[in-house]
Design brief:
The longest helix is centred in the middle third of the chain and has 14 residues, at 173-186. It contains 13 helices and 16 strands. By secondary structure, the chain is an alpha/beta fold. The strands form three sheets. The protein has an eight-stranded parallel beta sheet. The protein has helices spanning 3-14, 41-44, 60-72, 111-120, 146-155, 173-186, 197-203, 210-216, 230-242, 244-247, 271-283, 299-305, 308-314, and strands at residues 36-39, 82-84, 124-130, 160-164, 192-195, 219-221, 256-258, 288-290, 323-326, 331-342, 345-354, 362-367, 379-383, 392-394, 399-404, 409-416. Mean pLDDT is 94; it is low at 6-11 and 14-26. Strand 9 and strand 10 form a beta hairpin. Bound molecules: alpha-D-galactopyranose. The site of alpha-D-galactopyranose has 9 residues, from loops.
Length: 420
Amino acid sequence: MNQRNTRKMLVICVFAVSILTIVAALDNGLALTPPMGWLAWERYRCIVDCETYPNDCVSEQLFRRTADLLVSEGYADVGYEYIIIDDCWLAHERGSDGRLQPDPQRFPSGIKALADYIHSLGLKFGIYEDFGNYTCAGYPGVVGHMKTDAQTFADWEVDYVKLDGCYSEPEDMDTGYPEFGSYLNETGRPMIYSCSWPVYQEFAGIEPNFTALKQYCNLWRNYVDIDDSWEEVEIIMDYFAEKQDSIAEHAGPGHWNDPDMLIIGNYGLSYDQSKVQMAIWAILAAPLLMSTALRDVKPEYKDILQNKAILAINQDELGIQGRRVNNTGLIDIWTRPISPEFDGEYSYAVAFVSRRIDGYPYLKSVTLAEIGLTSACGYEFQDLYSPNTQPQILGPDSVLTVRINPSGVVFYRATIVGAR
Ligand code: GLA
């Protein structure tokens, strides 16, 4: 598009009327944008042998150290806030009062002291339990003790509860998860409620009731556990694309689909693949829960995790989950409507993801209209992984040509012209 047309477009567009957005929230008022933080499981699993693995075992030291690093390495400054324990923190038996208790060797100061420490750094604290008889790793579940356990979490000043679903019946989850949620609410302490109910129902062949999920849970795991590989990221991206017509519409402020943790900074993803995970988790309005050894993250991977422009897309106030809009020629194109809006039209995040693993960066060309960017006002395209490149102004009929590295991504913010 030439400069004169661009200017004309701008003149038309600045006089149009912008639409105000009304954001609906869940009752607990939490997670109005996807939660950001750190979750132990993918990286630290169920390492309980602190003698052999003093730096890696699931212990109060691990969570204290990670909380320190979240602050000192700059993650807290860009929005990562929750430090969340996963499985294997519990003692195998409840206390004589029937309450949950942590493993005494690995959490000698108790959970309340750990929560206090994390709070003293200005962070928030999350914990894991299971709706069934046992957690997935075989520690006591909440069955038969739901009310007490919810109160114990509140007494410990927990801010976030992940409730897993091992050792339970998927058909009981439609009532059981809301019941536990109601006990959390009754404590009066606001706690983000992360449910695992859809993934267990998915594998049991039951269609999850997303209307209920939105009402009772702030986020929910939809699909398989992420492991430390590109294949796993691909499987999850494909699931979210293939199911997008039934799941995407249920995401919004206060209630999110959860494709599982960020594995950036670990062993399995290349630099390019790490950029893909970050871009697509931003497009999906996914919770951003890193599971990595924060002290070991190399600077270029840290830059991905702390890319403010990408985090802003993930945290966009409209909370609309993006979709894959094109997947021809082994290049997937994903878009997500974001703010600012103008004249009833959205801005967009646009990601070109190469599924090729051969040779060199291939080209992909599309018109904006082909991928749903139809505003006559046009869009200012900024490459989010190359912030020093000059933005381009493109209209709906303009051809966008992109060169994408093998298993890599080119990721744009396309801000609608006239909105700024
Ligand atoms: C399940 C969950 C994982 C993790 C483990 C812990 O597999 O999906 O995220 O919490 O249990 O045992």
